[in-house]
Amino acid sequence: MSVKTNQAPPFMAEPLEFESQEEMKRFNKAYAEASDLYAAKDHAAALQAFKLMDEAWPWTACILGYIGLIYEALGRWDEAIDYLKRTVDLSPDSEFASTTFFLALQGAQYHFQDESYGQRSLDEAGRFLMRAGKPSVEYGYILRDMNGELSDEDHQAHMENIRNGTAQLEKPFVPRRAPKERWEWDKKFEE
After folding, report:
1. Class of domain 3-134+175-190
2. Which of 81, 104, 174, 179 is 20 to 30 A from 94, comparing alpha carbons?
3. Using an 8 Å Cβ cutoff, are 120 and 188 in contact?
């Protein structure tokens, strides 16, 4: 008999499913320990813990996503992008996975001074927004932040909401067709 978690973990759009209650308990224990190491910024220990989890539960988006975040924190951009791309491939409907990948690509663009990372980030935003076909809370926040529309108080409130699991914005970004000359990725979705 399979069992599911009550809710989807970070980086995933659907709850996890396990073969047994015992397996789910083992996963939850390992996940809590690895997440605590990540939260304590013990990146080496967290990476080791999540890599061990990846051996036990391969191709699980929430595990790969954290490995990607750790590599990003360590400045290992290629590995971070690889793991976050795999996360998005496994969980294409997860807004958190998509925006995390987007932000890592933006960070790599800044770090390497390479516009191709910026284009890839826009491609990912376009892929998610066209697939979702609904307003996006997190992309709304990111785009308003990039446009300088958010105050320090907005940032603090949003981060507190993320910590509490209640992140919501009054004005989500609503995907709509952009002029072709403005967005390169529009052409990809029209072919």
Report:
1. mainly alpha
2. 179
3. no
The residue with tokens 């996360």 is 87
Report whether 87 contacts 4 (CB < 8 A). Answer: no
- 63: Cβ–Cβ under 8 A, 6 or more apart, which residues? 31, 50, 53, 54, 57
Ramachandran angles phi, psi of 17, nearest 5°: -120, 135
Q: Does pTM top 0.85 for this prediction?
A: no
Phi and psi torsions of 18, nearest 5°: -125, 160
Structural domain spans, the chain: 3-134+175-190
Q: What is the mean pLDDT of residues 160-185?
A: 43
Tokens of 151: 């105050």
Which pairs count as long-range contacts for 3-11, CB under 8 Å and 24+ apart, including other chains? 8/94, 9/62, 10/62, 10/65, 10/66, 10/96, 11/61, 11/62, 11/64, 11/65, 11/66, 11/87, 11/91, 11/94, 11/96, 11/97, 11/100
The CA–CA distances, whole Å, from 55 to 49, 79, 179 equal 10, 17, 45
pLDDT (tens digit per residue) in 123-161: 999 899 888 877 777 887 787 777 788 778 877 776 666
Phi, psi of 173 (to 5 degrees): -75, 125
Which residues lie below 8 Å from residue 145, measured CB to CB, with a gap of 6+?
155
